Automatic annotation (TrEMBL):
One function term, GO molecular function aspect: delta1-piperideine-2-carboxylate reductase activity
PANTHER family in alphabetical order: MALATE DEHYDROGENASE, OXIDOREDUCTASE-RELATED
InterPro entries (UniProt xref): Mal/L-sulf/L-lact_DH-like_ah (IPR043144), Mal/L-sulf/L-lact_DH-like_NADP (IPR043143), Mal/L-sulfo/L-lacto_DH-like_sf (IPR036111), Malate/L-lactate_DH-like (IPR003767)
Keyword Oxidoreductase: yes
Gene: lhpD
Name listed for the protein in its UniProt record: Delta(1)-pyrroline-2-carboxylate/Delta(1)-piperideine-2-carboxylate reductase
Enzyme Commission code(s) on record: 1.5.1.21
Length: 336
């Protein structure tokens, strides 16, 4: 397959141009371009440059604001609320982050609820600034009703990712970011784009039959990972980042979309915990025990979550990122 290699600066410029030429304000274009470049850089193609197609398409469908400025408020001693006013979540996250960190340092634990945001981005990017600040973090968001609950065949849950991060001083943080569906929807869409079958277990067709045809799953239902366990976690995400923060469930988001085919609309919940407030003077002694756990995993040949991402980051910083010629052309065509 023909590919185009871009430095990270070129990838950012490509993304920024596609966004700003379609009407996104400078601030939104900058944070979105940075996010999709980071996804590509970290080897996460489903949340990389390819996302620009859906991001712009959602704007053209009138399902996201190109320029709304977020409102950030202190809702309670340990709760920050950021209203994205119908724009993508990333600017609201960026503007609310300092207050979330401040409250976490004050209270030991704090939450950020982002409301009324359109969401497409990988959650590891929202967790990493918190681990960089020495905090433990957890982020989650519903999406559109694309995933059947275990035992059912009709889409009800979103792909409902959960990202968790643990700071490790001067080492890369321990961060996992996983959909509670067997795969991200973006993975299935990328298989469809490449004309490839998907692995068994990712989804069912609209009659409820198992299939490896990505199109049939996109029109049918995705499945949760781990059967009823993934299904329970998916329900938890609906509750925490839906009704708890006064925002939409995945079913409500899909109903709001009303067949337009835009990206999910609703809320995101981010929790941050400060180990030094939990542990006081004993903090470093306990944090060292986390390292014993990590080396115990590695001693058995297990990879720590995030390791592949950091390796890919290092390679991309040196060699740039390679995308298919057809994706490059499609992104360029967004600005035509
Ligand atoms: O790829 O799972 C996904 C996804 C979630 C929200 C938009 N896309």
């Amino acid at each position: 397959m023909e590919t185009v290699t871009l430095s990270l600066d070129e990838a950012y410029a490509l993304a920024y141009h596609a966004l700003s030429s379609n009407g996104f304000s400078e601030q939104h274009a900058a944070v979105i371009a940075q996010n999709v470049t980071a996804g590509e850089r970290d080897g996460c193609a489903s949340h990389g440059l390819w996302r620009l197609l859906g991001i712009v398409d959602t704007l053209r469908k009138g399902k996201v604001s190109a320029d709304a400025l977020p409102t950030v408020i202190s809702q309670a001693p340990a709760i920050v609320k950021a209203d994205a006013h119908g724009a993508y979540s990333l600017l609201a996250f960026e503007q609310a982050l300092p207050l979330l960190i401040e409250k976490t340092r004050q209270c030991g634990i704090a939450a950020l609820a982002i409301n009324r945001c359109v969401h497409f981005s990988a959650l590891f990017a929202d967790v990493e600034p918190l681990t960089d600040a020495g905090l433990v973090a957890l982020a989650t968001t519903p999406s559109h009703a694309w995933v059947a609950p275990a035992g059912g065949t009709q889409p009800l849950f979103g792909t409902n990712p959960i990202a968790f991060g643990w700071p490790r001083g001067d080492q890369h943080p321990f961060i996992f970011d996983m959909a509670t569906s067997a795969a991200a929807r973006g993975e299935i869409q990328l298989h469809h784009r490449a004309g490839k079958a998907i692995p068994e277990g990712w989804g069912i067709d609209s009659e409820g039959n198992a299939t490896t045809d990505p199109q049939a799953v996109l029109e049918g239902a995705m499945l949760t990972f781990g059967g009823h366990k993934g299904s329970a976690l998916a329900a938890m995400v609906e509750l925490l980042a839906g009704p708890l923060i006064g925002d939409m469930t995945s079913a409500e988001s899909l109903a709001w979309d009303n067949g337009a085919g835009g990206l999910p609309y609703g809320g995101e919940l981010i929790l941050a915990l400060d180990p030094t407030r939990f542990l006081g003077e004993d903090a470093s002694a306990h944090l060292v025990r986390a390292e014993t756990l990590f080396s115990g995993m590695q001693a058995q040949g297990a990879r720590l979550p995030g390791e592949r991402r950091y390796l890919s980051r290092l390679n991309s910083e040196k060699q740039g990122v390679a995308i298919t010629q057809s994706l490059y052309d499609d992104i360029r065509a967004l600005s035509a």
